Amino acid sequence: MVESRSVGPGTRIWAFTHILPGAVIGAGCNICDHTFIENDVRIGDRVTLKGCIQVWDGITLEDDVFVGPNATFAPRGRTLVKRGASIGANATILAGLTIGEKAMVGAGAVVTRDVPPAAIVAGNPARIIGYDGAGGGGGSFAPASEIPAKTGVSATRVNGVTLHRLPEVKDLRGNLSFGEVAKEVPFEIKRYFLVYGVPSENIRGEHAHRSLHQFLICVHGLCHVVADDGANREEFVLDSPATGLHLAPMVWGIQYRYSADAVLLVLASDRYNPDSYIREYSEFLRLVKA
Fold first, then answer.
1. Active-site residue numbers?
2. Sugar 3,4-ketoisomerase QdtA cupin domain: from which residue to which, for each copy (predicted)?
3. First and final CA of the chain: distance in angstroms?
4. For a pLDDT cut of 90, what percent of the chain falls above it?
5. Where are the domains of the chain?
């Protein structure tokens, strides 16, 4: 039963589906059997709902979203699923959350927090296990202690990001790793900060800088870093005080999967300035593609 008059051209609606009058549905959608859509619902173009799904008041699904069979949205909240996101079969999304652009929610996951853009989440409660296109999550990356093998700088597939093997001296008295400004660290250092005591399920970063350079060294334990230039994304494991990662301006950076003992040292090219931050991924993409 389709009571809404706001259904775009080319949208297919299958058997035993009920759409209330206030719902707005875009073009080219595929709404499969046994789906119920309430009034205060906005569905973009080319959205697929794979059956046995209830879309309650307050839910917005942007263009190119995929929702697998029997996925559950909790009612009574403003839930937003952004462009290109995918929600697996039997996943549960609590009310009032945002699923970021091109994020992927694994089958059966229970999502209790916002999901960042391009993140891959799984489990109950859902945790980030990787980032789409970054090479992580599936164990396809090598530990940073293996790349590069020799002292020096290695290019990455992300523009403005280089991986540095720092000089290291080992003997019976202990180990020493070091670097010099304008040599191993490719900018003048104006500030540093340490990140530690991060619960393993939490993520840090999720921003870019307009003009700031950063150099990251995990001096104890390990953490994962995802770097994104708007076209390419790559994941790195920092697990040695002899490994550094340089993030140039206009690189989106994320740190996650901290070990319990991780201590991340960040060297910065300027003093703290909140105006230098870009905190919305959509704004970052707009700026790098301008």
1. 207
2. 160-288
3. 45
4. 86
5. 6-131, 144-288
- Asked if 6-131 and 144-288 have one fold, the answer is no
CATH of 6-131, one of 2.160.10.10, 3.20.20.370, 3.20.20.70, 3.40.50.620: 2.160.10.10
The model's pLDDT over 88-114, given as tens digits with 9 standing for 90+, comes to 999 999 999 999 999 999 999 999 999
pLDDT per residue over 155-173, tens digit each? Answer: 999 999 999 999 999 888 9
Asked if pLDDT for residue 143 goes beyond 60, the answer is no
